[in-house]
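Quick start: what a row looks like.
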Amino acid sequence: AETANYLLGVGRADCTGPVAQVPLMGYANPDQVGGGLLTRLYSRAFIVADLDDSRRVVFVSADIGMVSQRVRLEVLQKLKSKYGDLYQQDNVILSGTHTHSGPGGYFQYTLFWITSRGLIRPSLNAIVNGIVKSIDIAHENMKRGRLFINRGTVENSQINRSPFSYLENPASERSRYSSNTDKEMVMLKMVDEDGQELGLISWFAVHPVSMNNTNHLVNSDNVGYASYLFEQEKNKGMLPGEGSFVAAFASSNLGDVSPNTRGPSCVNTGESCDNPQSSCPIGGATMCMAKGPGNDMFESTRIIGENIYLKARELYEKASQEITGPVSSAHQWVNMSDVSVELNATHTVKTCKPALGHSFAAGTIDGVGAFNFTQGSVEGDPFWDQIRDQLLGEPSNETKACHKPKPILFSTGEMTRPHPWHPDIVDVQMAAIGSLAIVAVPGEFTTMSGRRLREAVKSEFDSHGTPRMNVVIAGLCNVYTHYIATYEEYQAQRYEAASTIYGPHTLSAYIQLYRGLARAIATDTIQDLPRGPEPPLFNIGNLTLLPSLSAERAPVNKTFGDVLQEVRQQYQVGEVAEVTFVGANPRNSAENATEHHFLTVERYSNSSGTWHGVQNDASWDTRFYWTKGSLGRSNVTIEWHIPHGTELGIYRIRYFGHYKKALSIVRTITVPFEGSSSAFEITIP
């Protein structure tokens, strides 16, 4: 008989939020605003407890750009009111996958308001509620079970996007590694004591930027596609997003790692721009963009996602190394703008107040910068005028000296109106489950930074009687602090270094702090760790530049959900079925319905004479586009990219929305509606 070592629970919940008019979070491109949905976003939660339930650890991976301090503090508040002291800052790890195609606006620090148009409550609420709900589901389904770990190499899925910075690291250090990216995937498999499969967590270092900054459809990018493939395989016969098996593809030290494997070339001339400046002869850096392996970004997303999925599936099926041992977690809040680091017995250095360097505005080969704030719709608005005045403010001599050789663009640590622009108080956190140590880091460690951190943590465990620990880095956790480059990479001041906000010794400070957490776990002295200064929770209303949701209209002699452009009568596999409806703003649905699907694809069953759903808007084969017209009108176009293996037969596409109806000059209500295409047939070519 199988013997259990842990209590395990898994859960998944929707965290998509508003898919229209909200800027997407990741490329910092104010023009990249949501205009529809390619695939829904999910929070995936995993709870591991000792068999006697004395200690628990929660790991959440959510399909969002990063976990913000605001999201974390609100999630912890909700968990406290529901579960008391069971789930707290020390044993709950919240990690973002780092997709660049999810809605933004869920930050309390001012810098992030600029490209996401303020704090957007519906966006924040969707993420917080989705994370909490996924934890609730895992909590309610705890079972006795077992954990297995496996690791392997993923090929053809990443390149280092700052290879010239990487080369600044000592040759003696580089010679120990065969590649300038970490190709290793670490996979944790969960089964219950009867051998029933529960789920998995995979950690692999790659930027989910296969979808580039011209994309306007909300989606979870390459790692989200890997989750989708694994969950579709294990939850047989279920629609996407349904079923009990949960597969998380979580982020790691992805700071300088791109999935755009064909490398950087000039958009205008096609020649390579793999040079230290990532610059083109004509058009400079803005013309230098990296391409993925596919013919377009959708195909690239699938190719990279499938590579990752196939390796995870292989590791999952072969996983035999069992994890046993106690569960523990350690956490501290640290003022990262004021950490003294002992480099050696005689030499102490310090971190700095946060600041961003000039290369931050240039962006990367995955998405060029668009930070020219002086233009656009913010002229003459006193709130944004105040912001611009601070942007143009001069950094203090102290900050300039501390950040050398970084040329400072924004001295965010000295900008405090209307709230601080960047966090000072940062979470450092680590969880140990038997021989697995999860190091939860608040940002994007580069490849070499991650290697140094893992090695330091491992040696700390080694020297305190806990050898052979599997140390894995979970990225984008708890609060966002941009990048963490090595001291040597920092000297080159490319994008990742310019975005290492606490100065040249940021990595050394984190290594010192995480060593302390590892020591406390290994020596069972967690209770002696100082808690540190609690982070602030700013009192912010709904501060946003989003257009307000006003009453909507259908065209003359039409009503919401009517078809404007009908499907064809017949399609073959591989073609695209497309239908356009009289639509309404999808933000209405996000704000009025949880678990709302905008569309279904249904197949007619001759035997029962009824329609059955075969796809929904969580599917990667459907695309939902919203187009705003004038006078309160808008259209919705739904595409179904009919995949190979689709059963022949009769189908239809349905649309579900909500429109705002005016009751009086001051009052509107939200009214649900639906529409359907005509029936169409899928035939053999």
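That is the whole record. Residues 6-336+421-528 form one domain. The mean pLDDT is 94.
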